[in-house]
Design brief:
The structure is a homodimer. Chain A is mainly alpha-helical. In chain A, 66% of the residues lie in helices and 0% in strands. Chain A contains eight helices and no strands. The longest helix of chain A has 24 residues. The N terminus of chain A is likely disordered. Chain A binds a DNA duplex through α1 and α2.
Amino acid sequence: MSNAVDIRTLDPVSEEPVSRQERKQRTRQALLDTALDLLADRPFATLSLREVAKGAGLVPTAFYRHFASMEELGVALVEEATRTLRGMMRSARTDPDTYQGMISASVATVHQFVRANEDHFRFLTRERYGGGPLARAIAVELRMFSGDLAIDLARFAPLRAWSTEDLHMLADLIVSVMITTTVELLEAKPGEDAKITGTAEKRLRLILLGIPRWKTS
Amino acid sequence: MSNAVDIRTLDPVSEEPVSRQERKQRTRQALLDTALDLLADRPFATLSLREVAKGAGLVPTAFYRHFASMEELGVALVEEATRTLRGMMRSARTDPDTYQGMISASVATVHQFVRANEDHFRFLTRERYGGGPLARAIAVELRMFSGDLAIDLARFAPLRAWSTEDLHMLADLIVSVMITTTVELLEAKPGEDAKITGTAEKRLRLILLGIPRWKTS
DNA sequence: GGTTACAGTGAACGACTGTACACTGAACAG
DNA sequence: CTGTTCAGTGTACAGTCGTTCACTGTAACC
């Protein structure tokens, strides 16, 4: 009566016997993946331990072999999505020579990363404002993101003389434009990407136009 | 054994006998109010019909006398919160003579309305990104908000020549700054208000500084 | 080769969920 | 005064929830 399946026969590619801890890590990842799937159209707080376990092909109690609670899985999800976010920031960090080059390159990077990791960005933007501990964890990460951006901005000649407070103000503003753009991309119907990225570039260009006239405090 | 209480004796102020439909409207409002209370630290989707009913002093089944489902209550909540939002927009619509005057007045209005209606703004910002039908309804409302702002902006001399597309781009940018400011206010610890509104004014000032140099398309 | 560690199973629990149904009593219309 | 309307009650049911506990089989260890 057992409908259990020998996992080793499932994937014809990996014939080598997988170690036990490797298998454990795989099911852990399966739990994270199905959770992310289920989160496509609902907030994290509505996920039940049971449906995540079922989605990963597990009996409910087996869940506890990997996470002590759903909240702990949520934290792991934040870490995973955050890794993607940091990857994006690393990709965006270039030393372009012109404003326009910097703008279009940054927007293109955001566009590319959002489209390649929709689940992660949807999760981050959803839960950022959802309240609870996840929102706080994501807020901390975004502040780091913004702080790093401020440091990068400080290297640009027109911003050399700016106070650190004003640099943070500018960085936050840019980040908020990027978040807005991300949400727009995630809610967009197919074919609207070009328009969204175009508007995003405009917004950044307008902001940067104000820089030369700014009197820092 | 009945612990029912004659409602008319509860409030010593309103002695006059209230009509039936008036009473119905009161309990309906009680349902909305307790829902808003419970939403202080969790997303709407986690609210149960039973706890909202209990919070309003009702037996679960009585809930259906007022709303066909929790989702319908959510829609009513969006309408209520949206009314506050429109009130804010109406208050902010002045014809100031200077940029700086317009900026500080607008930020002050946002500050005042957010502090006076924290529940409504928390609900709106939380559910805006929470997915589901509520998020869509709120998104529609915010687009209207942004559209109205674009029309207002069109009256300013420096923006007379701008294309409507660019005006919408600018309006969206300003709205996104206002939303960011609202979230910051709602997450602020006591005493941080001045700093937050100050930063908000800076962000708007920076944006407006770019306007004269903008070449509209 | 015998023993241990441990990922996953399956049954059971008490609490909570939305909803159906028959009801009560007071405000209302005639 | 009489009959109707209807906001609110109480009971009940079928699901789902998180969590417990004793268990099984196999990879890993000595």
